[in-house]
UniProtKB/TrEMBL annotation:
Organism field: Candidatus Planktophila vernalis
Xref: Gene3D superfamilies: PurM-like C-terminal domain (3.90.650.10), PurM-like, N-terminal domain (3.30.1330.10)
GO cellular component: cytosol
Keywords: ATP-binding, Cytoplasm, Ligase, Nucleotide-binding, Purine biosynthesis
Protein name: Phosphoribosylformylglycinamidine cyclo-ligase
Keyword Ubl conjugation set for record: no
Single GO MF descriptor: phosphoribosylformylglycinamidine cyclo-ligase activity
Length: 352
């Protein structure tokens, strides 16, 4: 006789994981959520969208890449979920959309209920920080494809923006100002390079690094900053003088900013307005990473940029400061020369 459990899938463990995560999920809700978890689909009351003239639904999906391997190696699973939420919802706010709800997918070699609950607790905490409802998810056990302690996470979110309030390249003008919001560290991008340096330089995740003031593991598992509510608050306070945002993820500052700059303009960042985070500076030195490669792989200290009209830069800084966000003017939008890229970094980084 053969059972599903003999094949490596433990349904009882899955049910136990659901029970353990219920309390976390309950905190990541909104009034529009209908019903609880356990159904075949999550339900969200969209009647409020009738108040918009032309509601546009926005959707985004992502994962956290090989940062999951750092979590697995350390055995700490309660922060990786925040990374997932950040990667997904902060892509939505770039166009001005409010993230409404999110679903997740967790693939594991073996369901260990407590571990699943830790991962989901991070997702729920991230959704709470973003004002987004976690309305559903799936945990899949893949025996034979993944080792017992291996896992991956992915998620998708839906948001909405009124067509008249949509942000983007169509609003950007010459003379606009780039407002930079600081990253919390490496975020969830470029960890293949991080792990390569760990391996080749024989770094220990448990070792205390004086340059960091903490262990490498603690630094690498610092959750990705979630900017959604800060960006939405900025939209409300700017009264039409906000052009758009750029979420700085894989590809770095220049490449991601170029995605929201029209063909005839170029966004020029002044490197002297900020310093490279010490953890990136240290790892690039240990790993011998060229500056150009570092700037195309990691966020280099900026997690989100806002593009605003020049006469509203002070208002943007004050609005973000009121929320505890220490933003700064990092550059300007200029007319683009034929040979010039749509976004560049110029000058040298400020000395620490």
């Amino acid at each position: 006789m053969s059972t599903y459990k003999d094949a490596g899938v433990d349904i009882d463990a899955g049910d136990r994981a659901v029970e353990l995560m219920k309390a976390s999920i309950a905190k990541a809700s909104r009034p529009e959520v209908m019903g609880g978890i356990g159904g075949f689909a999550g339900l969200f009351d969209a009647s409020a969208l009738k108040n918009m003239k032309k509601p546009l639904l926005a959707t985004s999906t992502d994962g956290v890449g090989t940062k999951t391997e750092i979590a697995r190696a350390i055995g700490k699973y309660d922060t990786i979920g925040e990374d997932l939420v950040a990667m997904v919802v902060d892509d939505l706010v770039v166009c001005g959309a409010e993230p409404l709800f999110m679903t997740d997918y967790i693939a594991v070699g073996k369901v260990i209920p407590e571990r699943i609950a830790e991962i989901v607790s991070g997702i729920a905490r991230g959704c709470e920080k973003a004002g987004t409802a976690l309305i559903g998810g799936e945990t899949a056990e893949h025996p034979g494809l993944l080792a017992d302690d291996e896992f991956d996470v992915a998620g998708a979110a839906t948001g909405v923006v009124d067509a008249d309030l949509q942000l983007g390249a169509h609003l950007v003008q010459k003379g606009d100002v780039l407002i930079a919001m600081p990253s919390s560290g490496f975020h969830a991008n470029g960890f293949s390079l991080v792990r390569h340096i760990i391996k080749t330089a024989k770094l220990s995740l448990d070792a205390h690094v004086s340059e960091y003031g903490k262990t490498s593991g603690e630094v690498f598992l610092t959750p990705t900053e979630i900017y959604a509510l800060d960006c939405l608050a900025l939209i409300r306070s700017m009264q039409g003088k906000l052009r758009g945002f750029s979420h700085i993820t894989g590809g770095g500052i220049a490449e991601n900013t170029a995605r929201v700059i029209p063909e005839h303009l170029s966004a020029i960042y002044d490197r002297s307005t900020w310093s490279i985070p010490v953890e990136m500076e240290y790892l690039s030195k240990v790993g011998g990473v060229p500056q150009a490669d570092m700037e195309r792989t990691w966020n280099c200290g900026i997690g989100m940029s806002a593009i605003v009209s020049p006469d509203s830069a002070d208002l943007a800084l004050r609005s973000l400061a009121a929320r505890g966000m220490k933003a700064w003017v990092a550059g300007v939008v200029e007319e683009r020369e034929p040979s010039q890229a749509r976004s560049t970094l110029e000058g040298t980084y400020r000395a620490r």
